[in-house]
């Protein structure tokens, strides 16, 4: 399956078709105003595709339109895939959520934690407990990202070559060793911080199997689910959407071929935190597997209880990210949202100021892609475009409003 198309009358799935058209009109204005190159949105309920909206170009300069089989860099929407892969090993008893990762990644055997001082000469202390698998899955390990620009350890990541890209020639094993050399920004388990934790998780999966991450994904997820167009790179460059960034003064898009090289060739590092290229049809199958609690078309990837555990709020005290996380960039809002094992989890729709349903779980990607799964409404939604960074416009909040105002049953 390489394309997505409507498979049910919206009214039969509880939607007002006229109201669904507001999705098309709203985001088409972004395209007409030069703020997005193009977009594709897919709404599904009860296992049927209810609405597909698209407009604009996958490559503005080439005049190539967005099509339903367009390939997109999904960046951090890779993280749920890596998390699912890791949990298949938990189910097999090969690793436990409480296991120290140093058992497989010895570079993390004696982590140090930042206390004070400048990036060049930080004062550190020993970690009071080891980094565990659970910490990686929940972003509570104390790792960070170089692009945060808020902490001396962030600057150390940048100095080591980690910001939006990784150092050339360094594979995932090498990246993991370099991250382990840096101090943690807090003691493991004490806070939440969006970070390279899922990349380290991907490396852990490689060590568990003795195989590169792309092979693990193909064997455990993509092959069984029929996700033939998803991988760390594609040779079909004509189908791959170009990547754009906003100009500082006007917000109008400008092409970024340097960052757009991601996904066009085999990478040195298989980034479990942000490296995949996929299509709407492929990722739809992944979200349907999640919605069905681990199974799709007779193929079971995870047990129902495992999916339930992954999509529950794991933050201590069941608080939201605003209370437990650092007020930094992430792919979802902090107010009213907790975090599970690889997903944000809506816990308070009033605090979040959203029409969505408590229990919804989601994540997004750096190029403004996003998805969510709403188990109560038996609903999945995904949005694809290629605008970096994802914090440029409130696309995700607007999409939620537009989808739920059309749900009328």
Automatic annotation (TrEMBL):
SUPFAM superfamilies to which the protein is assigned, alphabetical: beta-lactamase/transpeptidase-like (SSF56601)
InterPro entries noted in UniProt: Beta-lactam-related, Beta-lactam/transpept-like, Diverse_Enzym_Activities
Gene3D superfamilies named in the record: DD-peptidase/beta-lactamase superfamily (3.40.710.10)
Pfam families xref list: Beta-lactamase
Residues annotated as signal peptide: none
Record domain Beta-lactamase-related: where: 23-395
Superkingdom of this protein's organism: Bacteria
PANTHER family membership: BETA-LACTAMASE FAMILY PROTEIN (AFU_ORTHOLOGUE AFUA_5G07500), BETA-LACTAMASE-RELATED
Protein's name according to its UniProt entry: CubicO group peptidase (Beta-lactamase class C family)
Protein source organism: Amycolatopsis sulphurea
């Amino acid at each position: 399956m390489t394309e997505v198309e409507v498979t049910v009358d919206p009214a039969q799935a509880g939607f007002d078709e006229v109201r669904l058209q507001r999705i098309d009109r709203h985001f088409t204005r972004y395209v007409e105003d030069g703020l997005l190159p193009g977009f594709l949105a897919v709404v599904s309920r009860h296992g049927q595709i209810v609405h597909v909206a698209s407009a604009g170009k996958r490559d503005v300069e080439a005049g190539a339109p967005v099509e339903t089989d367009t390939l997109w860099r999904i960046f951090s929407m890779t993280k749920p895939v890596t998390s699912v892969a890791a949990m298949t090993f938990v189910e097999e008893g090969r690793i436990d959520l409480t296991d120290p990762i140093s058992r497989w990644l010895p570079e993390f055997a004696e982590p140090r934690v930042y206390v004070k001082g400048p990036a060049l000469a930080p004062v550190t202390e020993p970690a009071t407990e080891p980094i565990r698998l659970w910490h990686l899955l929940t972003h509570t390990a104390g790792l960070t990202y170089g692009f945060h620009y808020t902490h001396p350890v962030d600057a150390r990541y940048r100095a080591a070559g980690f910001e939006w890209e990784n150092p050339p020639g360094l594979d995932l094993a090498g990246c993991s060793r370099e991250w382990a050399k840096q101090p943690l920004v807090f003691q493991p388990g004490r806070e939440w911080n969006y970070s390279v934790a899922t990349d380290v998780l991907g490396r852990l999966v490689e060590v568990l199997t003795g195989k590169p991450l792309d092979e693990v994904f193909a064997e455990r997820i993509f092959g069984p689910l029929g996700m033939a167009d998803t991988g760390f790179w594609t040779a079909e460059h004509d189908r791959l959407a170009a990547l754009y960034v906003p100009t500082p003064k006007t917000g109008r898009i400008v092409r970024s071929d340097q960052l757009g090289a991601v996904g066009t060739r085999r990478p040195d590092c298989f980034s479990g935190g942000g490296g995949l290229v996929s299509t709407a049809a492929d990722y739809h199958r992944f979200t349907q597997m999640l919605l069905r609690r681990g199974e799709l078309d007779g193929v079971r990837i995870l047990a129902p209880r495992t999916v339930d555990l992954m999509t529950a709020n794991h933050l201590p005290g069941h608080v939201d990210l605003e209370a437990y996380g650092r007020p930094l960039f992430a792919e979802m809002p902090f107010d009213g949202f907790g975090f599970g094992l690889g997903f944000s989890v809506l816990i308070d729709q009033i605090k979040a100021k959203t029409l969505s349903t408590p229990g919804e779980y989601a994540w997004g990607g750096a190029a403004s892609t996003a998805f969510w799964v709403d188990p109560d409404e038996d609903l999945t939604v995904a949005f694809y475009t290629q605008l970096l960074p994802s914090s440029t416009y409130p696309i995700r909040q607007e999409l939620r409003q537009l989808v739920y105002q059309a749900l009328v049953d």
